[in-house]
Specification:
By secondary structure, the protein is of the alpha+beta class. It has two domains: about 120 residues, 60s Ribosomal Protein L30, Chain: A; about 180 residues, Phosphoribosyl-aminoimidazole Synthetase, Chain A, domain 2. The chain has ten helices and 13 strands. It has a seven-stranded mixed beta sheet with strand order 8-11-7-12-9-13-10, with helices on both faces. A six-stranded mixed beta sheet has the order 1-2-3-6-4-5, covered by helices on one side. α1 runs parallel beside α2 and α3 packs across α4.
Length: about 325
Protein backbone atom coordinates (compact mmCIF):
# COMPACT_ATOMS: atom_id res chain seq x y z
CA UNK A 1 0.00 0.00 0.00
CA UNK A 2 1.34 3.41 -0.99
CA UNK A 3 0.37 6.41 1.12
CA UNK A 4 1.13 10.10 0.64
CA UNK A 5 3.79 11.40 2.98
CA UNK A 6 5.36 14.69 4.01
CA UNK A 7 8.67 15.91 5.41
CA UNK A 8 6.62 17.29 8.31
CA UNK A 9 5.49 13.77 9.28
CA UNK A 10 8.04 12.88 11.94
CA UNK A 11 6.42 9.60 12.97
CA UNK A 12 4.01 7.69 10.76
CA UNK A 13 3.20 4.16 9.62
CA UNK A 14 6.74 3.29 8.63
CA UNK A 15 7.88 3.58 12.27
CA UNK A 16 4.92 1.98 14.09
CA UNK A 17 4.99 4.04 17.26
CA UNK A 18 2.28 4.82 19.82
CA UNK A 19 0.99 7.84 17.87
CA UNK A 20 1.61 9.83 14.71
CA UNK A 21 3.60 13.07 15.03
CA UNK A 22 3.34 15.95 12.52
CA UNK A 23 5.65 18.95 12.91
CA UNK A 24 4.11 22.43 12.74
CA UNK A 25 7.17 24.56 13.50
CA UNK A 26 10.58 24.28 15.13
CA UNK A 27 9.14 23.78 18.61
CA UNK A 28 5.65 22.37 18.05
CA UNK A 29 4.28 19.14 16.63
CA UNK A 30 0.85 17.56 16.64
CA UNK A 31 0.47 14.12 18.23
CA UNK A 32 -2.48 12.12 16.86
CA UNK A 33 -3.88 8.77 17.96
CA UNK A 34 -7.13 6.78 17.94
CA UNK A 35 -8.30 3.84 20.06
CA UNK A 36 -11.63 2.19 20.90
CA UNK A 37 -12.93 -1.18 22.10
CA UNK A 38 -15.96 -3.00 23.58
CA UNK A 39 -16.75 -2.89 27.33
CA UNK A 40 -14.28 -4.52 29.71
CA UNK A 41 -16.26 -3.67 32.87
CA UNK A 42 -20.00 -3.66 33.53
CA UNK A 43 -20.29 -0.09 34.79
CA UNK A 44 -20.89 2.14 31.73
CA UNK A 45 -19.40 5.30 33.23
CA UNK A 46 -16.24 3.44 34.30
CA UNK A 47 -15.99 1.83 30.85
CA UNK A 48 -16.10 5.24 29.16
CA UNK A 49 -13.50 6.67 31.53
CA UNK A 50 -11.15 3.68 31.11
CA UNK A 51 -11.44 3.78 27.31
CA UNK A 52 -10.63 7.49 27.37
CA UNK A 53 -7.64 7.01 29.68
CA UNK A 54 -6.39 4.28 27.37
CA UNK A 55 -6.60 6.50 24.29
CA UNK A 56 -5.02 9.49 26.04
CA UNK A 57 -2.12 7.28 27.10
CA UNK A 58 -0.68 7.12 23.58
CA UNK A 59 -0.15 10.88 23.64
CA UNK A 60 1.53 10.66 27.04
CA UNK A 61 3.77 7.85 25.77
CA UNK A 62 5.07 10.21 23.08
CA UNK A 63 5.85 12.88 25.69
CA UNK A 64 2.89 14.96 24.53
CA UNK A 65 0.06 16.92 26.13
CA UNK A 66 -3.53 16.13 25.02
CA UNK A 67 -5.57 19.16 23.98
CA UNK A 68 -8.54 17.85 21.98
CA UNK A 69 -10.53 14.63 21.58
CA UNK A 70 -13.30 13.36 19.32
CA UNK A 71 -15.47 10.50 20.55
CA UNK A 72 -15.95 7.33 18.49
CA UNK A 73 -18.84 5.07 19.48
CA UNK A 74 -20.99 2.21 18.24
CA UNK A 75 -24.21 1.43 20.12
CA UNK A 76 -27.01 -1.13 19.55
CA UNK A 77 -30.32 0.39 18.44
CA UNK A 78 -32.05 -0.97 21.54
CA UNK A 79 -29.41 0.20 24.04
CA UNK A 80 -30.89 2.18 26.93
CA UNK A 81 -30.02 5.83 26.14
CA UNK A 82 -28.94 6.30 29.75
CA UNK A 83 -26.20 3.69 29.29
CA UNK A 84 -24.84 5.39 26.18
CA UNK A 85 -24.95 8.75 27.94
CA UNK A 86 -23.03 7.34 30.92
CA UNK A 87 -20.32 5.94 28.65
CA UNK A 88 -19.91 9.26 26.88
CA UNK A 89 -19.92 11.18 30.17
CA UNK A 90 -17.26 8.92 31.66
CA UNK A 91 -15.04 9.57 28.66
CA UNK A 92 -15.66 13.32 28.68
CA UNK A 93 -14.88 13.60 32.38
CA UNK A 94 -11.60 11.71 31.97
CA UNK A 95 -10.61 13.96 29.07
CA UNK A 96 -11.36 17.00 31.24
CA UNK A 97 -9.16 15.52 33.98
CA UNK A 98 -6.39 15.39 31.38
CA UNK A 99 -6.82 19.12 30.75
CA UNK A 100 -8.29 18.57 27.27
CA UNK A 101 -11.77 18.87 25.75
CA UNK A 102 -14.13 16.61 23.82
CA UNK A 103 -15.19 18.68 20.81
CA UNK A 104 -17.47 16.23 19.00
CA UNK A 105 -17.36 12.77 17.54
CA UNK A 106 -19.20 10.16 15.52
CA UNK A 107 -21.47 7.21 16.34
CA UNK A 108 -22.75 4.25 14.34
CA UNK A 109 -25.19 1.45 15.03
CA UNK A 110 -23.39 -1.71 16.18
CA UNK A 111 -24.57 -4.92 17.81
CA UNK A 112 -21.96 -4.61 20.57
CA UNK A 113 -21.22 -1.29 22.31
CA UNK A 114 -17.84 0.21 21.48
CA UNK A 115 -16.30 3.47 22.59
CA UNK A 116 -13.04 5.33 22.33
CA UNK A 117 -11.37 8.55 21.27
CA UNK A 118 -9.35 10.17 18.54
CA UNK A 119 -6.95 12.36 20.53
CA UNK A 120 -4.84 15.30 19.40
CA UNK A 121 -1.94 16.56 21.49
CA UNK A 122 1.07 18.81 21.30
CA UNK A 123 4.75 18.04 21.82
CA UNK A 124 8.08 19.76 21.33
CA UNK A 125 9.88 17.51 18.79
CA UNK A 126 13.05 17.83 20.87
CA UNK A 127 11.20 16.40 23.88
CA UNK A 128 9.50 13.42 22.20
CA UNK A 129 9.86 9.97 23.76
CA UNK A 130 9.41 7.51 20.87
CA UNK A 131 9.61 3.76 21.35
CA UNK A 132 13.13 3.62 19.98
CA UNK A 133 16.05 5.61 21.36
CA UNK A 134 17.01 3.57 24.43
CA UNK A 135 20.73 3.00 24.99
CA UNK A 136 22.59 0.18 26.75
CA UNK A 137 22.75 0.93 30.45
CA UNK A 138 19.43 2.78 30.60
CA UNK A 139 17.16 1.65 33.43
CA UNK A 140 13.67 0.36 32.66
CA UNK A 141 10.93 1.90 34.78
CA UNK A 142 7.29 0.78 34.79
CA UNK A 143 4.49 3.00 36.13
CA UNK A 144 1.56 0.58 36.65
CA UNK A 145 1.28 -3.01 37.87
CA UNK A 146 0.41 -5.87 35.51
CA UNK A 147 -2.55 -8.23 35.41
CA UNK A 148 -5.57 -6.17 34.34
CA UNK A 149 -6.38 -8.51 31.46
CA UNK A 150 -6.42 -11.58 33.68
CA UNK A 151 -8.59 -9.87 36.29
CA UNK A 152 -11.16 -8.45 33.87
CA UNK A 153 -11.36 -11.84 32.15
CA UNK A 154 -12.05 -13.44 35.52
CA UNK A 155 -14.73 -10.80 36.13
CA UNK A 156 -16.43 -11.59 32.81
CA UNK A 157 -16.62 -15.23 33.94
CA UNK A 158 -18.03 -14.28 37.32
CA UNK A 159 -14.88 -15.50 39.09
CA UNK A 160 -13.19 -12.26 40.19
CA UNK A 161 -12.88 -11.19 43.80
CA UNK A 162 -14.56 -7.78 44.17
CA UNK A 163 -11.48 -6.22 45.79
CA UNK A 164 -9.25 -7.50 42.97
CA UNK A 165 -11.54 -6.00 40.33
CA UNK A 166 -11.75 -2.72 42.22
CA UNK A 167 -7.95 -2.44 42.31
CA UNK A 168 -7.70 -3.23 38.58
CA UNK A 169 -10.33 -0.63 37.70
CA UNK A 170 -8.59 1.99 39.84
CA UNK A 171 -5.32 1.28 38.02
CA UNK A 172 -6.93 1.50 34.58
CA UNK A 173 -8.65 4.78 35.51
CA UNK A 174 -5.37 6.39 36.52
CA UNK A 175 -4.07 8.75 33.86
CA UNK A 176 -0.44 8.54 32.78
CA UNK A 177 -0.38 12.36 32.76
CA UNK A 178 1.84 12.91 35.80
CA UNK A 179 4.02 9.92 34.97
CA UNK A 180 4.74 11.42 31.54
CA UNK A 181 5.60 14.78 33.10
CA UNK A 182 8.01 13.13 35.52
CA UNK A 183 9.55 11.10 32.71
CA UNK A 184 10.27 14.32 30.82
CA UNK A 185 11.74 15.95 33.92
CA UNK A 186 14.19 13.09 34.38
CA UNK A 187 15.32 12.76 30.77
CA UNK A 188 13.57 9.58 29.62
CA UNK A 189 15.00 8.62 26.22
CA UNK A 190 12.27 6.24 25.07
CA UNK A 191 8.80 5.24 26.20
CA UNK A 192 5.76 3.20 25.31
CA UNK A 193 2.49 2.45 27.06
CA UNK A 194 1.65 -1.15 27.94
CA UNK A 195 -1.66 -2.15 26.36
CA UNK A 196 -2.92 -5.01 24.20
CA UNK A 197 0.42 -6.65 23.36
CA UNK A 198 1.32 -7.06 27.02
CA UNK A 199 4.55 -6.07 28.73
CA UNK A 200 6.85 -8.12 26.50
CA UNK A 201 5.03 -7.30 23.27
CA UNK A 202 5.44 -3.57 23.78
CA UNK A 203 8.91 -3.95 25.29
CA UNK A 204 10.02 -5.84 22.17
CA UNK A 205 9.02 -2.85 20.05
CA UNK A 206 11.62 -0.79 21.92
CA UNK A 207 14.37 -3.09 20.61
CA UNK A 208 13.66 -2.73 16.87
CA UNK A 209 16.37 -0.16 16.18
CA UNK A 210 19.84 0.45 17.62
CA UNK A 211 21.16 -3.04 18.42
CA UNK A 212 19.67 -2.97 21.90
CA UNK A 213 17.97 -5.63 23.98
CA UNK A 214 16.22 -5.57 27.32
CA UNK A 215 16.95 -7.44 30.54
CA UNK A 216 13.85 -7.66 32.74
CA UNK A 217 13.98 -8.90 36.33
CA UNK A 218 10.95 -11.13 36.85
CA UNK A 219 10.90 -10.71 40.64
CA UNK A 220 10.80 -6.91 40.25
CA UNK A 221 7.59 -6.85 38.22
CA UNK A 222 4.63 -5.27 40.07
CA UNK A 223 1.38 -7.26 39.96
CA UNK A 224 -2.19 -6.30 40.67
CA UNK A 225 -3.76 -8.19 43.59
CA UNK A 226 -5.12 -11.54 42.41
CA UNK A 227 -3.45 -11.52 38.99
CA UNK A 228 -1.09 -14.41 39.68
CA UNK A 229 -3.91 -16.34 41.36
CA UNK A 230 -6.09 -16.15 38.22
CA UNK A 231 -3.16 -17.08 35.99
CA UNK A 232 -2.57 -20.19 38.10
CA UNK A 233 -6.28 -21.03 37.78
CA UNK A 234 -5.92 -21.03 33.99
CA UNK A 235 -7.99 -17.88 33.46
CA UNK A 236 -6.48 -15.95 30.58
CA UNK A 237 -7.76 -13.65 27.81
CA UNK A 238 -7.40 -14.98 24.25
CA UNK A 239 -5.00 -12.22 23.29
CA UNK A 240 -2.53 -13.36 25.95
CA UNK A 241 -1.81 -16.66 24.22
CA UNK A 242 -1.47 -14.93 20.86
CA UNK A 243 1.04 -12.49 22.34
CA UNK A 244 3.01 -15.36 23.85
CA UNK A 245 3.10 -17.46 20.68
CA UNK A 246 4.14 -14.53 18.52
CA UNK A 247 7.19 -13.64 20.61
CA UNK A 248 8.28 -17.11 21.68
CA UNK A 249 8.06 -18.61 18.19
CA UNK A 250 10.32 -15.82 16.90
CA UNK A 251 12.85 -16.30 19.66
CA UNK A 252 12.33 -12.74 20.86
CA UNK A 253 12.32 -13.74 24.54
CA UNK A 254 14.84 -15.81 26.50
CA UNK A 255 13.99 -17.19 29.93
CA UNK A 256 17.02 -17.28 32.18
CA UNK A 257 15.00 -17.20 35.39
CA UNK A 258 13.06 -20.36 36.31
CA UNK A 259 9.44 -19.24 35.93
CA UNK A 260 6.34 -21.39 36.14
CA UNK A 261 3.70 -21.09 33.42
CA UNK A 262 1.52 -18.70 35.41
CA UNK A 263 4.43 -16.31 35.93
CA UNK A 264 5.16 -16.42 32.21
CA UNK A 265 1.54 -15.64 31.38
CA UNK A 266 1.73 -12.34 33.24
CA UNK A 267 4.50 -11.17 30.93
CA UNK A 268 2.11 -11.36 27.97
CA UNK A 269 -1.16 -10.30 29.63
CA UNK A 270 -2.98 -7.69 27.48
CA UNK A 271 -3.42 -4.52 29.50
CA UNK A 272 -6.02 -1.81 29.09
CA UNK A 273 -4.84 1.67 30.08
CA UNK A 274 -1.60 0.17 31.38
CA UNK A 275 1.46 2.02 32.58
CA UNK A 276 4.36 3.62 30.78
CA UNK A 277 7.56 1.66 30.19
CA UNK A 278 10.43 4.17 30.30
CA UNK A 279 14.09 3.97 29.37
CA UNK A 280 15.86 6.43 31.69
CA UNK A 281 19.61 7.24 31.66
CA UNK A 282 21.33 5.27 34.44
CA UNK A 283 22.62 8.38 36.18
CA UNK A 284 19.07 9.73 36.50
CA UNK A 285 17.12 6.58 37.40
CA UNK A 286 17.39 7.05 41.18
CA UNK A 287 16.30 10.66 40.79
CA UNK A 288 13.32 9.51 38.73
CA UNK A 289 12.27 7.02 41.40
CA UNK A 290 12.55 9.70 44.08
CA UNK A 291 10.50 12.15 42.06
CA UNK A 292 7.80 9.57 41.39
CA UNK A 293 7.64 8.70 45.10
CA UNK A 294 7.45 12.37 46.12
CA UNK A 295 4.60 12.92 43.66
CA UNK A 296 2.68 9.88 44.94
CA UNK A 297 3.05 8.18 41.56
CA UNK A 298 3.78 4.44 41.40
CA UNK A 299 7.01 3.45 39.65
CA UNK A 300 9.16 0.33 39.67
CA UNK A 301 12.68 -0.34 38.39
CA UNK A 302 12.25 -3.60 36.46
CA UNK A 303 15.52 -3.98 34.57
CA UNK A 304 17.86 -2.42 32.07
CA UNK A 305 18.66 -1.88 28.42
CA UNK A 306 21.53 -4.06 27.19
CA UNK A 307 23.56 -4.41 24.01
CA UNK A 308 22.27 -7.10 21.69
CA UNK A 309 18.73 -7.99 20.69
CA UNK A 310 15.53 -9.41 22.15
CA UNK A 311 14.48 -9.68 25.77
CA UNK A 312 16.09 -11.65 28.61
CA UNK A 313 13.96 -12.57 31.62
CA UNK A 314 16.22 -12.99 34.66
Amino acid sequence: MRLPTSPHLLIGLEVSDDAAVYQLDAHTALVQTVDFFPPIVDDPYAFGAIAAANALSDVYAMGGRPILALAIAGFPEDLDPAIGAAILQGGADKVAEAGAVVAGGHTVVDREPKYGLCVTGLVDPAQMTPKVGARPGDRLLLTKPLGAGLITTAAKRGLANAAHLEAAVASMLRLNRRAAELAAETGARAATDITGYGLLGHAAEMTRIGDVGLRIVASALPLLPGALEYARAGIAPGGLRRNQRYLEERGAVRYIAALDEAQRLLLFDPQTSGGLLLAVPPDRADEALRRFAAAGEPCWDIGEVIAGAGIEIV
